[in-house]
Amino acid sequence: MWHGPTRPAKTTATHTHWLKVWGPGLIVMLADTDAGCLITAAQSGTQWGYTMILPQLLLIPILYMAQEMTVRLGIVTHKGHGELIREHFGVGWAWLSAGTLAISAVGALLTEFVGVAGVGELFGISKWITIPIATVLLVGIAFSGSYHRVEKIGVVIGLAELAFIIAVVMIRPSFTQMAQGLVTIPWRHSSYIYLVAANVGAVIMPWMIFYQQGAVVDKHLQPSALPKERHDTFVGTLMTQGIMLIFVIAFAATVGHADHPQVLSTVGDLAHALSPFIGSMPAKVLIGASMLGGALVAALVVALAGTWGIMEVLNWKHSLNEPLNRKNAGFYIMYTLAHVIGAVLVLANFDLVNIAVAVEVMNALLLPIVLGFLLLLEARVLPEQYRMHGWYKWLVTVLCWIVMIFGLYMVGPIMSWW
């Protein structure tokens, strides 16, 4: 019987060396802080200053608990999220989940390619150069014939997000003001609640659940690896929320003090806002490195999550551990098409604002479905000793419901703006 993270299952030395186990949690969490999330964090700090620190801290346990469930489901059953939904709830529900996931994934890819284009434009490089290069890189990584290799490359790329720590050191925020912000909650202001909801909706993306469960399966992890994979997920959670926090703090300490806070919606807006405080070139380099790292690793993870989800529903072969052949051609073709479609749409200058809004609505609507299935699968599929019990089960359930409610709350304001 498992009550929570304080009582992990016993482990042996076999297949549990942390270098062999760690990775799925790190890469999916680094992907969570993609271009859109970092812009949201920057805007939060700009509009509401240090009062946005507390929500980021409170999201740490929620994010960890949700992703930890995917770890247990994947490692114990050796099946992906879409496959479990198909087997236990039917093909119809599986197609609903995977279909909306696919649309959401393509939409998210648009955001990442826009982020890549924005970073290039900071340095005067056309999107007709940066986006094709990024597309070839991302497709080429998946064709390496090894999940381990893909994972390592993705983590290394994602770690570029940590470059922004240098910006916070240069800015030297006030610890006294940060402490005051921690105990200030302007809950009466609708704009504050809206931004909190935006941050909650951004912290658990539907594709994260599909990706991490598929990743631990593709990595062939055994139940003995559960404790170390939980550690991997927890460290990744601290890392992703730490990155969100440094963006909130950096912009709260600078443009957040302005009488009329700026509206930040692009990579260029972020760099321009910080330039007066740390210099034009440092702002471009640090914003560029963070955004590019987040956008690339998110594009890799999002495309894989969407492709895995559809392949699981179709019951087709979908492993990164095999080179391209006739049996797995569908997997590689769909993964490639996801990137190509995203790149073409960005290069063709479609109405990306409306597309991005539609994707936000899709994520908000999909989140209750995905988290609902996650809770049901955890209770129905796992053997008794691997399920949640007692107070921990109720805590996780309540927190997941809070996230689902915040996700649905976002639909109204987004649709009215659209």
Uncertain stretches of 5 or more adjacent residues: 5-16
Distance between the termini: 48 Å
SSE arrangement, N to C: HHHHHHHHHHHHHHHHHH
Q: Mean of the pLDDT scores?
A: 84
- Our count of helices gives 18
List keywords for this structure.
single chain, 418 residues, mainly alpha
Describe the overall structure.
This protein has 18 helices and no strands. The chain has 418 residues and is mainly alpha-helical. Helix 4 packs parallel to helix 12. It is globular and about 55 Å long. About 3% of the residues have low confidence.
In short:
The protein has 418 residues and is mostly helical. It has helices at 18-21, 24-32, 35-48, 53-77, 81-89, 91-122, 127-142, 147-158, 165-171, 175-182, 190-203, 206-218, 226-252, 267-278, 280-314, 329-347, 352-380, 390-417. The longest helix is centred in the last third of the chain and has 35 residues, at 280-314.
Topology summary:
Layout: H1 18-21, H2 24-32, H3 35-48, H4 53-77, H5 81-89, H6 91-122, H7 127-142, H8 147-158, H9 165-171, H10 175-182, H11 190-203, H12 206-218, H13 226-252, H14 267-278, H15 280-314, H16 329-347, H17 352-380, H18 390-417
Helix pairs in contact: 2-8, 2-12, 2-13, 2-15, 3-11, 3-13, 4-11, 4-12, 4-13, 4-17, 5-6, 5-15, 6-7, 6-15, 6-16, 6-17, 7-16, 8-15, 9-13, 11-18, 12-15, 14-15, 15-16, 17-18
